[in-house]
Design goal:
By secondary structure, the protein is α+β, with helices and mostly antiparallel strands. The chain folds into 2 domains: 48 residues, Arc Repressor Mutant, subunit A (Orthogonal Bundle); 82 residues, Gyrase A, domain 2 (2-Layer Sandwich). It is built from 6 helices and 6 strands; from the N terminus they run αααββαββαββα. It has a 4-stranded antiparallel beta sheet with strand order 3-4-6-5, with helices on one face. Helix 4 runs antiparallel to helix 5. The protein is elongated. 21% of the residues are buried.
Amino acid sequence: MLRIIREARVRSQDELQRLLRHRGYPAAQPTVSRDLRELGVAKGPAGYVLPTPAPASPAAGLRPSGGSAPAAHGEEKLSRAVREFVLSVEPAGSLVVLRTPPADAPPVARAIDEASLPEIVGTISGDDTIFLAARSASAAAALTRRLRSLIGPGAKSSNASRSAQPRRSKRS
């Protein structure tokens, strides 16, 4: 599965199923979905993207009690997810609200959770919105600055260049 995603632009699970079947690996949609999630594969606007490999460590598979390699990997994954998917970052008291294209909030929220940022006490993700509960309003302000810096230059309050994409209304 990883080789297919690495070698070709795969835009949907149906397409991935066809490519797997073509290579002699028939798989049901729930299996493909579960495997993608377990492998940490995220779906972006251009299709599926592979997770960054974890740095090698002498005690692979063991969670160190304070080593920096897992933290560095979490920061790298967070940076990539924010840069690729986050459209805007807005503070709201002790909350920070992130907007993404539809269906892109869950992988970003997961990357945030895995980074174990000390400013965050909780994360709630919807389809295109993430609420981060910070320890205080000042922690939310610092977190906002940090996340905007990961998006890159021009990441202001609404990140207008990226947020020009049409949005679906949640109301029926």
